[in-house]
Design a protein that fits this description.
By secondary structure, this protein is α+β, with helices and mostly antiparallel strands. It folds into 2 domains: 288 residues, Aminopeptidase (3-Layer(aba) Sandwich); 123 residues, Alpha-Beta Plaits. 33% of the residues lie in helices and 21% in strands. It contains 14 helices and 18 strands. The strands form 5 sheets. It has a 6-stranded mixed sheet, with helices on both faces. The protein has a 4-stranded antiparallel sheet with strand order 11-13-9-14, covered by helices on one side. Strands 4-5-18 form a 3-stranded antiparallel sheet. A hairpin with a 6-residue loop joins β1 and β2. It is globular, with a radius of gyration of 23 Å.
Length: 462
């Protein structure tokens, strides 16, 4: 495409400042205290899509947070690309670990981002990445180089399970009809070696509650005589893995796909430094299921992790009590063929069965989704590969991700469309963590690469 690099450089500061303004809005979907901010963000996204030249933009009400829908149809006979993204963000906690305010974006240079990175909650996941598509469309419309039709569907509940998106997609299949779905909510290997995500893990997220006595008890008068829910919960959680870090839930691995030796060898070709990985995390050893490499453990193998645990007294000083209740939040990342609802049932049955007498257990499912694998011989994948090759000068590597985007399998089921995952983030961008950031290089390179996907996809569809 003509003048794309110069257009991006000429508008660099404006593009950065627009994203900073979007990042200032604390659109935390998990916390009702931020509900108005989430709604305000939807309006901001709507205005941005109108400004770049979409013919039709609307805020679509749902049972939950609204979905921003937009379209630019230049010719019904041409292919249509549906862009998906989300404007909600994770909670910023723990706040004391942020070096700057999570909703006070700043740009600063780092070792991996010598051109600077934008630090704020949502910078990479997913405001910065979906906004690349808005600015890419701006370029294509402003220079009269939009080669096909485009639709946008930007939701506000991805970080809490996308329940309303499922409701919306099922009821708007004609509105959302497309030839391919394009998502930037993943990452790539490095700024010199791009990759295209070809697989996502599924997810089952639950909360567990262990109850002992009917009230908090004095630990001196009752200690050793009644079951302590915190002690019990800790033992129950510890029993969920064996000495080989294998998950002990009966039936958990029944449908897990075992990749062939050849497939694992192909995965191993991706550049990876175990020493650099450990250094970046400030750890002296990695940990995981025996028999698999680090990159296999976090992509093609299922996992079970405690995301939060609490109970009893956690304030300043001492309070000698045996808590009445103890809680934990647990997520299980699943591989294709594992059904998240089935896994949730297996977990619930097992967790209840291992509770000793003296306590009761309650398991509350929160949300989940299926895993997904996309073929690398599709027109969409080939178009993405050519686009990355043009802007990076290197052919991207297909790579499975350890993350989850549950709605991708929904899209294929309801819209009969394949999804292409063109992510521009890095593993080091601290998504879901304090000090989340997105490299300026990555942000601008995304704006430069996305229009080329449109170009090549249109050409290949002819």
């Amino acid at each position: 495409m003509e003048n794309i690099s110069s257009y991006v450089q000429e508008n660099k500061e404006r593009f950065i400042n627009e994203l900073i303004d979007l990042l200032k809005i604390p659109s935390v979907s998990a916390d009702p205290a931020f509900s108005q901010d989430v709604l305000n963000t939807a309006n901001t996204v709507k205005e941005a899509l109108e400004k770049v030249g979409c013919d039709h933009v609307e805020i679509c009400e749902t049972p939950g947070y609204p979905i921003v829908y937009a379209e630019k149809i230049i010719n019904p006979d041409l292919p249509t690309v549906l862009v998906y993204g989300h404007y909600d963000v994770q909670p910023p906690d723990p706040l004391d670990l942020w070096e700057s305010g999570p909703f006070e974006p700043i740009v600063k240079k780092t070792e991996l981002h010598p051109e600077g990175a934008i630090f704020a909650r949502g910078a990479c996941d997913d405001k910065g990445q979906f906004y690349m598509h808005v600015k890419a469309l701006e370029f294509m419309i402003a220079t009269d180089q939009l080669p096909c039709n485009v639709k946008f569907m930007i939701e506000g509940e991805e970080e809490v399970g996308s329940e309303s998106l499922s409701w919306f997609v099922e009821r708007n299949q004609e509105k959302l009809s497309n030839d391919v779905i394009l998502i930037s909510d993943t990452g790539m290997i490095s700024n010199t070696q791009p990759s295209i995500t070809t697989g996502l893990r599924g997810l089952s997220y639950v909360e567990v509650e262990v109850t002992g006595p009917n009230r908090d008890l004095h630990s001196g008068l009752y200690g050793g005589a009644v079951a302590n829910p915190i002690n019990i919960l800790s033992k129950m959680i510890a029993s969920l893995h064996d000495e080989n870090n294998h998950i002990t839930i009966p039936g958990f691995y029944d449908k897990v796909e075992e990749l062939s030796k050849e497939e694992r060898e192909e995965m191993a070709k991706a550049p990876f430094s175990l020493e650099a990985y450990k250094k970046a995390l400030d750890i002296d050893a990695v940990h995981g299921e025996n028999g698999y490499t680090t990159n296999e453990r976090n992509s093609i193998r299922p996992t079970l992790d405690v995301n939060g645990i609490w109970g009893g007294y956690t304030g300043e000083g001492a309070k000698t009590v045996i808590a009445s209740k103890a809680y934990a939040k647990i997520s299980m990342r699943l591989v294709p063929n594992q059904d998240w609802k089935e896994i949730t049932e297996l977990f619930t049955k097992h967790f209840e069965s291992i509770a000793p007498k003296g306590v009761t257990v309650k398991v509350t499912p929160h949300h989940g989704g299926q895993g997904y694998v996309t073929p690398i011989d599709s027109i969409g994948y080939r178009a993405a590969s050519k686009a990355y090759n043009d802007t990076f000068g290197v052919t991207p590597i297909p790579q499975r991700s350890g993350g989850s985007i549950p709605i991708v399998s929904l899209f294929e089921k309801e819209l009969k469309s394949k999804t292409i995952l063109m992510g521009f983030g890095l593993d080091s961008d601290a998504i879901h963590s304090p000090n989340e950031h997105f490299g300026v290089f990555n942000y601008l390179k995304g704006i430069e690469t996305i229009p080329l996907f449109f170009k090549y996809f249109t050409e290949l569809k002819k």
